[in-house]
Specification:
With 234 residues, the protein is an alpha+beta fold. Helices cover 24% and strands 23% of the residues. It binds FE2/S2 (inorganic) cluster. The site of FE2/S2 (inorganic) cluster has 13 residues, from loops.
């Protein structure tokens, strides 16, 4: 029997004894093969969307408040500023923050810089120095040695950072002094918010090279020129 496409599902059931579902398909002019194809297509679409979502979640996990994202640290007054020669770990000038895997450096106002004018300002800007309204300066230094990745401790007895693995040596602002490291320590972006220090561990500046005499920002922690063994291994 020929089945017209203009019949209602009810008419079709009466005429053919078939189900309403079949009648509806017929009314719409869809074959079972087409319906099957559409169902398979829809299933594949859903599976593909789920797969894409899963992959994106793995690639871009929600890091809010964790390493790899902005991390709120303590109120600014915890980080007591100090002159370069007076830094003592976790007491004044330099503070270790394990959550941010970084050292917060707070240099007291009017530091002795080796550069001046526009040249100094360019270095400060490009090297993530943050000037506070009281004239002091802040930095957030990533704890990882840029030689082969050991954690670099701050040594009070050296007034600088000295890597225990192969001896790379960095000034209090992370500037390279000596040793096998190819560049200065990397820095994170640092801002203030609601009276707290925020370190954005998703923004790493790893483009700070080895300074030479004419580009060094801070004086060395000892007299003379950089030389191996100034701060002996412990
Ligand atoms: S890993 Fe620090 S000097 Fe080699």
């Amino acid at each position: 029997m020929s089945i017209g496409t203009t019949r209602t599902p009810q008419e079709y059931e009466v005429l053919t004894g078939g189900g309403a579902e079949a009648a509806e398909l017929q009314r719409r002019g869809l074959s079972r093969r087409q319906v099957l194809r559409r169902a398979v297509g829809l299933t594949l679409l859903v599976a593909s969307a789920e797969g894409t979502y899963g992959a994106l979640t793995m690639l871009y996990p929600n890091l809010k408040g964790q390493f790899g994202s902005p991390i709120q640290l303590s109120p600014t007054d915890k980080y007591v500023a100090a002159k370069q020669a007076d830094f003592v770990l976790d007491q004044r000038g330099v503070f270790y923050e394990p959550k941010a895997k970084s050292y917060i450096m707070h240099l007291a106002a009017d530091p002795t810089f080796l550069l001046s004018g526009g040249v100094l300002q360019n270095f400060l800007d490009s090297e993530n120095w943050v000037k506070d309204k009281d004239g002091s300066y802040w930095l957030s230094l990533y704890q990882v040695c840029v030689h082969l990745g050991c954690k670099v401790p701050f040594r009070d007895d050296c007034n600088s950072f000295k890597c225990p693995c192969h001896g790379s040596h960095y000034n209090i602002d992370g500037e390279y002094i000596d040793g096998p490291a190819p560049r200065s320590l990397d820095r994170f972006a640092l801002i203030f918010q609601g009276g707290n220090v925020i370190v954005d561990t998703g923004k790493l500046n790893n483009h700070i090279g080895r300074p030479v005499a004419s580009t060094r920002v801070l004086p060395l922690p000892f007299a003379g020129t950089p030389k191996e063994g100034v701060c002996a291994a412990q």
